[in-house]
TrEMBL record:
Name the UniProt record assigns to this protein: Helix-turn-helix domain protein
Gene Ontology MF, one: DNA binding
InterPro entries: Cro/C1-type_HTH, Lambda_DNA-bd_dom_sf
Keyword Transmembrane set for record: no
Keyword DNA-binding set for record: yes
Top-level taxonomic group: Bacteria
Stored CDD domains: HTH_XRE (cd00093)
Residue ranges constituting the HTH cro/C1-type domain according to the UniProt record: 7-61
Amino acid sequence: MNIGARIKELRNLVKISQEELADKIKVSRGNVGDWERGRAKPGAEALLLLSRFFNVSVDWILTGEMLQNTDLFSQSCGKEISPRDLELLAKFHQLAPRDQIKVEGFIEGLLYSQTLSSNGKESTGRANEGA
């Protein structure tokens, strides 16, 4: 897969048109089309904008290989980043900052609950029973 195909794949994952992507990263729609068709390659500034917008490394856009950050992720949780992970991350980045905070809070709450359950400390709502 080439650079253009990876850009198109990312764009399709977040379900936006070439025109919408161009608007988001402040380039012309023609540039996006040329990248996707392999007629041109994005320059350094465009690569950074694409990387930030899609929250993927420039390495991945250029080579298709996930380096550095994903290796740290794999080491910390023992799992590889899947296309589904990228899709969820892309959707997360489309949210307004206040909604991102809500999602993070929800996830933290679920993880905390899961930790309590696995430690056998989950509250049953009867803490004062028998007192």
